[in-house]
Each structure stands twice: as structure tokens, then as C-alpha cells.
């Protein structure tokens, strides 16, 4: 059976033990590559995801040996922190003993022996490819050439509608599509690889057989093969990660995807064909010598002194941050509760670190508002279809499979139909106009007669008076229609599939959400469900500033769904049978916090009766004051000099198409606190802490704790490690210089006109030009819960235990007095900090 269809997605296995073993070997290599999501829902992901079953130190050694990847910053960064007093002598001593297993006698001597020249810290990878050897022999950068050829084909193959026409046949499987193009591509021949096309034509059409064929030519030693395969994937890390995400999606559906296996087969075939056609007499001899050296290097592999010292300094830096966090909780005079204060409103925010700033300021301007933290999809994992769209998208954490489908609508049926028709028509006109402007012939006639007509728009866009592109939420809709949009929960059929949420399902989702929020009693008159989103222009990574818990989308839809369900009288009646009594006067308000401008919008205020309008006005005044305070606070971190006030300056940044930092996103995140709000009330985290509300005494079976430790804790570690990796090695795990980005295929960006698909964050998202705005710190997770309960959950979930045991995050326990009392040290063991 020949695998030809792109939709099949799984490499067929032959009957021989050899092919079965080869497929397993390829899959094991592919498991080491973390997925990356496309620009339309660019969510944070742990780039070390496939390696979390190993210790942080061993992965640092493996990645450095395999591809020269760095997992720490240069020594100079840590020496600067020592000079600032951020890292103490005691921190270094503790870190040295943990990393090397022995006591450090003389800290001064250790520091004096560290290299002062950053160039001496660079290490040469121990694994080479044929392209590496060929580059040394011919003084031609074959890695760059191969990456450019594969990337150009992959962009066309995976294109999501950006290109006017496709050069790659996307109806074929990945491998066959590449093979059909490579068989006619003259570029290798023109660069000296005579006969390359002939070598490609001789390859088997099965990706698995082709990989086996290539490996017979390459003759990689068995001990070297796992490192070599990993090296190939890391060399094209962007497209490898994109293919891994396609396999991830299939895994959520209970299927096995081998898209990345096929891409690995392509890389192996390129290596084999390059070796066969390289015009150098010593090509085979040099490759044999390289394999011998690699075999010796693998056998003798050990952590170098340079890397060991940097790991010690990084561990000391982590310890210093943890020490300050413990002092923050254990020495501060915290406000224990809001007893005696009448609660006029409760506001449920996403746990996102940017919410911490707004929550703190909201509580300061109005002590009668109680805030809570919960994952921003609010326990409603829906598939959402916007108005005028035929299909929707999953708006929940990527760890989860989405639930029911919900459509956006206007309450009046006639208005709804009119708005949909208008939006569809305007979109069609925009597509025709775009095709006209980009046409091979019409583009010339467009520029001359019509070019000057764009001058006023260029002027207003450049000065931030207008947006260069329309707001996606407003595109094709009038302001009145936009303000009246709601969600339709009624069960119906749409495009041959069911939409809506049945009443019983609404009740179940509402019960689970309220219990997980630790909000099943004492409801305030107003309960705000506050999703969050961002607003920026000329920003390919804009969705990365939206809600990760919503799958890289705005939290608007989930807030509206949650409010609609919880305001439903039939749902409230059903909740009473579950022991949850929501007072009749309680109104759930769907809101959106714009993290770029710190403006907060209430969508369904029309549900508030006339006799409560004064209370609503007072609430909105508090929200406005909190927004002003938050903008002033965040503007200081922007390090900007502006003649405008904070409000105007922040708004201009959101509309400025030259702005590389419309906001800092989650840069600086280093803490995740899972505890009742009184434990953190009055403490300032400066927008660097995730805050999740949780009361373990109300969680008798610890099912909520298990959910938190297996979902939000994992997701926050993903965010933390994405920022970490983008900081310590932006070349391999970031996306470089934002000003050089070019969107390719509608799925990602290239840095410049060619090269690999870039993953991770731009350098401008972690560095302000003078210093790092995100310092490489592993996440400190603080949970108020019994140690035994946490141990049971860790013992039950190996993937979560690996994160804690192998040093990918630090787990701390809080006692009932709000003090951080214990540190997890691995293998279900804790040590007391008191």
C-alpha cells in the first residue's frame, strides 16, 4: 500500500521486523520535538516538551552536544547579578552542591576561574551532518541552501491561503509532494550537485522505505543514530515543530500522526542525495571520518566544565529568586481577609500575569470588589463560530479536546441575517480587491493611478490616528452590531453538524466551573467573568498576546458563554439540586480586559435592570480607575519617554504599526500561586505571577487540585519555558529580530526572505534594547494544600512528576498561615523551610 493522501497522516508499516523497528526509531526521534502552533492561534509551548523525562542538566548537555543549543545565558549575565547582590554566596554554594554533589570550599576561587571572554564559552556540537561535512570541504553553506529549498517547498505545501497560487501539490502526502518537486527542481544542479534530480527519482515512494534507503547510503553507526536523527530535526527546527503540531492534533482525536516522520524522511533523503552528488573527491572519506569521530564522541560524552559552571550559576539564580519569593510571603504583613467589608462585586479574571496588575489596582480603588483567578476559558471548552463564518475554532487549552460548538449571533433574527450577509459581502469584496492588488499584471496598473489615493491613509496610520488594518472583531460589522453580539446556546443543526449546548450539559459545565473556581456560595450582586485579549497592528504574533487558555484567541466568547449559562434560570434551578444556590439578584457580566490598553468592556450590561443602574455606574467607574492605574504602572516598564499622558501613550502604542513592543505580554513570568486570594492580597508581584484561586478545604476529594496540577500548572510551565528558551537561545528557540519578519504560508514567520520557520518569541519580546525584560528563571509553583494530596497527584501523573523531579519547575507548599513551609526535592520528598 502506497501512502499518497495528505489526509491519511500515518506512515504504513510493512511486514518485516526491520521496517517496524525503523519506524519506531524515527518516531522516538520525533517525540523529542515540541509542537508549535500557527499564527492564527500562536500559543505558548514548552520547547523542551519531548525531553521533560530527563533532568534539566542532562537535556542541557544533550542539546549542546547535538546541536550547540544553549540552555543558559553567558557567564557575564550571572556575574552581573552577583555584583548587584541578586545572587548570594549562599545561593552559589547550594547550587554547586546540587549540581556537582559536593560542597564548594571557596566561592571566590570558583568565580575567579570562570571565563571572562564570552567567546570562550561557545562549544562545538559533537554531531555532524553530511551538510556540515560538505560545507567544510567546499566552503559552501549547504545547510543554508538545503534549509532554503525545504522551507520554500514547505511554505507552499502547508499554505493556509496566503499565496495566490501553490507550487507544491498539497493533495499528495508530505513526502510524495516533496519528492515530486525535488525531482524537477534544477536549483541543486545549478549549485553543483549534478545528478541530484536523478538521485531523488531513484528513491522509493514510501517515506519509510525511502528513509531506510537513505540510511543504507549514510551508514550511521547504531550508537550515533538517535543523536543524528535529532540533529537533523533540530537543524530544521521550525518546520519540524509545525509538523509535530499536526501530529499533536491527531493525538487529541485518538489517532497516530506521522507527518513529522515523513519530514524526517525528507531530511534523510536530502543527506543521502547530497552525499551521492557532492562534487568533491574526498566526500565519502570525510564522511567516514566524521562518523568515527561522532561514535567516539557519543561514547565519551560528558558535561563540559564550561556548561557545568553555567548550570551552577543558573541554579543559583533560580535559588535567589525562590529565596526572595519565600521572604515575600513569610515576612510581609498580608491582608488576611476582607471581613466586615460589603462585597459589591466579584471579578473572575484569567490567571494570566497581566491580570495580576489590574486585579491589584481594582482592589485598591474599591475594597468592595473581590477578585478571583481561574483559567481564562472559565471551564467552558467550546468550539466557537464567529458571525459570518462557516467553521469555528477550538477555544480552550491545547491540552484539551474542545467540547460543544457555539455560534455568535445577534438577538434579533432579522438583524442577525442582515449583519451576516453584510459581513460576508464585505469579506468577498476585500478578497477580490486583494487579488487585484497582488495580481501579476493588475499590480502595475494599480500603483500608478491609485497609489496617491492611499497617501491620506498612510499619514493617519503613521501618526496612530487610524489602524493600518481593521480590528478583526469589528471587520465587516457596524459598531451597533458589534456591541449587540451575543452567543446562541440553543441546540440546532448548522452545516450538517450540531451547535448549541443542551441544558443538562450547561448545568454540568456550570457546576464544574464554579467548584473549580472555589465559588459555589456567597455570590455578590455582580459577578464579572473577565476574559482577556489584546490589540496591536502589524504584528504577526498578535494572537500570542491573547489568551493561551482560549487556544490563542480572545476570551470574549468564553466570557459570553459562561455568563449566558450562569444567567440562565433553568441552569440555576438545576444547580440548586447540586447544592449551589445563586441568588436571584446576582447577575453575571461578560467582560473583556484588553491587556494592551487596560480597558475593560462589559458586553451584557443591558441585562442589568433600571433599578440597579447606579450600582453598575459605580462599578464601571472603579474599573475605569483601575485601568488608569494599571496603564500608569505598565508605562514605567515600557521605558518610554512621551509627552502624552499614560492613557494616550498606551493607546498610541496599540495603533502604531512601527511599534515592536505594543505590550510586554507575559515577559517576566516566574511564579504561579494556587491559594485563596487573601494569601496574596496586598502583595505586589509586578505582573510576574499567575494567580489561581483555590480553597483545598472545600475540595474534599482533591479533584480540583488534580485538575489544577495537571492543566493550569502544566500550561503555566509551558509559558515560562517558552519565554526561558526564547531568552537563553533565541537563535534556535526564538524568532529573532521582529523587524525582519516575513509571514510565510499564513502559518509562521521567516527572519528575512528565506530560512527555517521561526518558533518562539522575537528578541524584542524579551529584551528592551538595554536589558532583559524576561530573566531566565524556572517557574516557582506555590500551592496551599496538604503534602499528601499533592504527592498522590504526582504519583498518579508521571508527566507532571517529571516536571517537578527533573527541575523544569520548582514546587513549594504553603501552610494554613499563608507561609511557604516546604520545598519539593523530588521522588515525592519534601524538605521544611521553617
Residue share in β-strands: 5-15%
As laid out across the biggest beta sheet, the strand order is 13-12-16-17-18-19
| Structural class category | alpha/beta
Gyration radius, in Å: 28 Å
Question: Which bin fits the share of residues in helices?
Answer: 40-55%
How many E strands?
A: 19
Low-confidence stretches: 1-6
What's the rounded overall pLDDT mean? 90
Distance between the termini: 65 Å
Characterize the main sheet.
6 strands, mixed
Q: Helical element count?
A: 31
Shape, per Cα inertia axes: globular
In short:
The chain is α/β, with parallel strands linked by helices. The protein contains 31 helices and 19 strands.
Give the topology.
Elements: H1 17-30, H2 56-67, H3 75-83, H4 89-100, H5 107-112, H6 130-138, H7 142-157, H8 174-182, H9 187-190, H10 196-201, H11 207-218, H12 225-235, H13 237-252, H14 259-277, H15 283-299, H16 305-331, E1 345-350, H17 353-365, E2 369-374, E3 382-385, E4 393-395, E5 405-410, H18 413-438, H19 442-450, H20 455-462, H21 479-483, E6 485-488, E7 492-494, E8 497-499, H22 503-516, E9 526-533, H23 556-566, H24 569-576, E10 587-594, E11 599-602, H25 613-637, H26 646-655, E12 671-674, E13 689-692, H27 703-710, H28 712-728, H29 730-733, E14 741-744, E15 748-751, E16 779-784, H30 787-796, H31 798-805, E17 809-814, E18 820-826, E19 829-832
Parallel strand pairs: 1-2, 1-9, 3-5, 9-10, 12-13, 12-16, 16-17
Antiparallel strand pairs: 3-4, 5-6, 7-8, 10-11, 14-15, 17-18, 18-19
